[in-house]
Design goal:
- Strands 1, 2, 3, 4, 5, 6, 7, 8, 15, 16, 17 and 18 form a twelve-stranded mixed beta sheet that branches. This protein has a six-stranded mixed beta sheet with strand order 9-10-11-12-13-14.
- It starts with a strand and ends with a strand.
- By secondary structure, the chain is α+β, with helices and mostly antiparallel strands.
- Helix content is 17%, strand content 46%.
- The chain contains four helices and 18 strands.
Length: 256
């Protein structure tokens, strides 16, 4: 069987994307998904995305981490929107279904603004903040992000949470509305160049802990720049948008 695929990246977070509207991809084959995402023996990616038909929205996005676990991915969602545009399924505005519900997005050239789920509960501890922004996130403020042991500490913290664990975001404040972020992602089990749900959690956490009063936050990541905007009322966050680039890298085929 020959599998046609596209490779997309959103600020360095990279994905294999497959048009699965004919429902031919064996999505229950976790071994195959992990093999395709393997950077030495497969195509190589942080995750794999299937685009399928949906009865109520423009399309359905099914996202798998590199280890085959299914979840929501913010940058993956933005790349899926760009892919749907490439397939002429949508124009410049869309709604689609994902693991955590329905999302709305807008396209401006290669910049995708993705509406994220509302955040109604945040756990603030002495040294960290926990929030669910489509998946589970731990946020921790540090002083020197360049030299911080993201992999070592991220792995340790990731497994300190009950199953399925949490992504771990380390952030350094640059100015009143800018926070640099590095993320250890569960399911990838490594640091990635960007994490969309992660920077969303960071922006909300920094506002909730009064590190900023801004509701438009710039978030430099290892792979570029993301922005998160939101509304807040009585500790609840809504109208949350994740904004950044989503680019097609190449198209290919692989024999399964």
């Amino acid at each position: 069987m020959i599998l046609n695929f596209y490779k997309y990246q959103g600020t360095g977070n990279d994905f294999i994307i497959i048009d699965n509207r004919t429902i031919t991809f064996p999505k229950n084959d976790i071994e195959l998904i992990t093999k395709l995402c393997d950077r030495h023996f497969g195509i190589g990616a942080d995750g794999l995305i299937l685009l399928e038909n949906d009865a109520k929205t423009d399309f359905k996005m099914i996202y798998f981490n590199a280890d085959g676990t299914e979840t929501m991915c913010g940058n993956g969602g933005r790349c899926a929107v760009a892919f749907a545009k490439k397939l002429n399924l949508i124009d410049c505005k869309t709604t689609f279904t994902a693991f955590d519900g329905t999302h709305y997005a807008e396209i401006d050239n290669d910049i995708i603004s993705l509406h994220m789920v509302d955040v109604n509960e945040i756990n603030i501890n002495k040294d960290a903040v926990y929030a669910f922004t489509g998946t589970q996130h731990h946020v921790e403020l540090v002083e020197s992000l360049d030299n911080y042991p993201v992999f070592e500490n991220g792995k340790k913290i990731r497994y300190s949470y009950d199953s399925p664990g949490a992504n771990v975001n380390f952030t350094q404040q640059i100015n009143t509305n800018t926070f640099r972020v590095r993320t250890y992602e569960k399911g990838v089990e490594n640091e990635t160049l960007a994490c969309g749900t992660g920077v969303t959690a960071v922006a909300i956490a920094m506002y909730a802990t009064k590190k900023t009063t801004e509701q438009l936050i710039k978030l430099p990541v290892e792979g570029g720049l993301l922005e998160v905007s939101f509304d807040e009322k009585n500790g609840k966050f809504s109208n949350i948008f994740l904004k950044g680039s989503a680019v097609c890298v190449f198209k290919g085929e692989i024999e399964l």
